[in-house]
Amino acid sequence: MKMHEGTIRVLISFLLVIITQANPTSVFYNGIEYQLYRFDGQNGRLSFNDANTACVNIGGELALINAVNIQNAIQGQLEMWKNEPNGGWIEWLRGYWIGGSCSDNCYAAGSTSNQVNWKWSDGSGIYDGYTNWYSNLEPNGVSNQAAYVYNFDDMPGFPNTLGAWGDESVNSLKNYICQRDTACYPNPCYNGGTCQYMNNGSYNCHCAPGFDDINCTTDLCNPSPCENSGTCVGTMSGYECDCTLGVIGTNCEIDLCSKNPCENGGTCIGTDGAYKCDCPDEFIGTYCETDLCNPSPCENGGTCDRLEGDYQCYCPLGVIDRNCTTDLCRSSPCENGGTCIGTDGGYDCNCQGGYNGTNCTTGKPETQQFTRIDQQLLLQQDGFKVVW
Q1: Are residues 72 and 155 in the same domain?
Q2: Cis link prior to 24 (omega < 30° from 0)?
Q3: What pTM value is reported for the model?
Q4: Do 210 and 107 share a domain, yes or no?
């Protein structure tokens, strides 16, 4: 009884391997794997566009049967499963999508000018190389057509169909043949890298932004090379550091404010790729290097007072202008012996001898009136004897 159980288990395991290998079945040619997806019923069969998407999802595309050697490579798989399946899916509805299609003016059997409209998915023309249309009546669709391979030879009146091509509406549901580079499957490129098959059988990884090395295993931003709280951003050429304000350098290694360049108590403030100095009220300049009141710009005894980014001169009486440069009394504006007296923002003249006016220019001089007694006294003072 135990032997029977073991035998049953072995048979079940063997059947599972066969089923797994049967869909898809694979054939290899020139570094490319061709996978034939065959479904017994309608479930699993896809339209042309959906079939191509399914191939892309496994790292490939619908097969390009553009050489007779490729046709021969898949022919053996077609022989293995020819005339299958039959469950309600018969005649021309059978077959495998391949990667050729045409969007408009697809009737190329009777019009050689329409042949240029048939393209492989890589953009090359189907009629530029090997073709295997079933007859000179193919392709005969009008628009939105795609190529497929016949997997049957059991239709009366149509001999030698197995492996030949036909055309069908892209919306028809069929099996499909995918192709993918063997060097690129499973994908050796990590972190979202894209594998490109090389003609010598090797591969080349096109890494996602921020990743490097042959298999894209190096994350250039982990650990982050950016200093001073910079943010590492992956790029196609490597990485870039998005630096905080006031920090520069490839890796944000230079903090422009770390050695405060601002003098006289100024505060360094980082800006986008630069810095500025916030100066105390009494200082100005890029580095707050200029003391507005030392040396004092105020002349003629004026007093300098510091303001925010500026200064003000408080001038003595009679002195005006921003820097107290004009002493209104220096030019002696008061005439006829008048005395100039400075005032707040101006001057007054203290006039003498009967003169008046702003500058003592108007009026008459005072005339002395002497009496005889006055004259006598004056003359006597000078030693004269006066006799009247």
Answers
A1: yes
A2: yes
A3: 0.48
A4: no
Which of the residues in the chain have pLDDT under 70? 1-22, 83-90, 199, 366-388
Residue pLDDT, tens place only, 156-174: 888 888 999 999 999 999 9
Residues 193, 113: Cα–Cα separation, whole Å: 41
Q: Which tokens in the block code for residue 39? A: 């479904």
Please, which residues have CB within 8 angstroms of residue 377's CB and are 6 or more apart in sequence?
none
Q: Which two tokens stand for residue 96?
A: 């495998």
Question: DSSP letters of 11-66?
Answer: HHHHHHHHHHHHSSEEEEETTEEEEEE--SSSTT-B-HHHHHHHHHHTT-EE----
Alpha-carbon torsion (63, 42, 46, 150), positive or negative: positive
**Letter for the amino acid at 244?**
T
Structure tokens at 275: 């810095």
Asked if residue 45 lies in contact with residue 173, where contact means CB atoms within 8 angstroms, the answer is yes
Dist. CA 213–CA 298, nearest whole Å = 69
Over its C-alpha atoms, the chain yields an Rg (Å, rounded) of: 53
In this structure, the answer to whether residues 118 and 138 fall within a common structural domain is: yes
Does 75 share its domain with 201? no
Cis before 295 (ω within 30): yes
Taken as a whole, the chain contains a residue count of 388
Residues with Cβ < 8 Å from 164, sequence gap 6 or more? 132, 133, 134, 149, 150
Same domain, 157 and 90: yes
- Strand 346-350, strand 61-62: pairing: unpaired
**Residue 118, SS3 per DSSP:** coil
